[in-house]
Design a protein that fits this description.
Blueprint (H helix, E strand, L loop, with lengths): L8 H9 L39 H4 L14 H4 L11 E9 L9 E12 L2 E11 L3 E4 L5 E5 L2 E12 L4 E13 L5 E2 L2 E2 L3 E14 L8 E14 L16 E11 L4 E12 L6 E2 L7 E3 L7 H7 L8 E3 L5 E3 L3 H8 L1 E11 L3 E9 L8 E11 L2 E10 L10 E9 L11
Antiparallel strand pairs: 1-2, 1-22, 2-3, 3-6, 4-5, 6-7, 7-10, 8-9, 10-11, 11-12, 12-13, 13-18, 14-15, 16-17, 18-19, 19-20, 20-21, 21-22
Length: 420
Amino acid sequence: MTYKFHLLHLTAIAVVLNLSVGSSIAQLDPDASGRENQVDMNTITTAVPFLMIAPDSRSGALGDAGVALSPDGNSLHWNAAKMVFSENELETSLSYAPWLRALVDDMNLAYLTMNRKINKRQAYGLALRYFSLGNITFTDQVGTTIRDIQPAELSLDAGFSQKFTDKFSGGVAGRFVHSNLTGGTSVSGAESKPGIAVAADVSVFYSNKNANWGGKKGTFNYGMNISNIGSKMSYTETAARDFIPANLRLGVAYTMELDDYNDITFTIDGNKLLVPTAPVYDQQDGNTIVSGYSNDVGTATGIVQSFYDAPGIVDFNDDGTYSILPGSIFREEMREINLGGGLEYTFSDVFAFRTGYFFEHWSKGNRQFITMGAGMKYTVFTIDLSYLVSTTQTNPLANTLRFTLRMQFSDLLDVGSAVN
């Protein structure tokens, strides 16, 4: 992968890697009829969007939903509070996914994680996420090669889960993020540097194993995770600092035991970035905000502001006056919520088949895709695969394949004896 690089291309790289592959330039839906049905494109971009990539194949096959699924070795990413509900004392997971193969052939994501129960009411987890951007050739503005580098990003996570009742738990996680996009290349006298940030997650999980329905045994789960609450990130001493992808995820899952061997699970997640939306500026002076709010704010303010700062559709007149289309602000706020969900069928806890769907409004990135996958368990090993089929044209996420190897150990020692 080759980039012509100067200082401003740090932003270009971040946009290419952003999960919401789109443009922040105002456009109109060509298929819309009537101004009330038209939509301005206004995607939300952040630094280190790799933190939002679903790393594992199980959730990757269920429309990128996972906050309320039954716990497994990847719980730390989706909902740290789930870890203590695991039926196994120790779970580990290794995942690998070639990424954006429709654009490049040397970008990939690897995820290694471990969950360990301390006792019946406490558990902890550790994780390493490594995102390789392949090989990039940096050149100056006239095309002279500066150097080749292999940029990469990583995060180190640690989390803790505590049961408050037999059905309800809470979790916290800390995260260190390192993003090296330039290899310290000096451009136009400005020194670039790796971006560094620290962040935290706060989550809750509820599980009722007696949610029987229609004469069948059932388990109902609810989960919430507020993730990546942390510092902004910059790649130079002088550049503005960018938000990392703080995010709110809510979801439910219901598992029905059809008989002694067959189970089926339905799950759905709602997902919203807690990052400010870009405002609309006056077309004449370019500096005055006419709708929305400034996104040059701190992390805490940005999280709160993200719930009400969508600018909506602004119509400018030739004389410089403008109007905001009634109802467009609320509609844009609703379009910032992504939905993902799916269905999982398991046979005797040995074979699993999964499918799902993910939807993001076209004005906020246009990620819309069908997912499918399967899993097979042998002794303590489980192998999961998932595949993504885009339902939109020229989507760089198309044909994404994920691989996950999980290991579950339930009898290393008597967990119950550790409870005081």
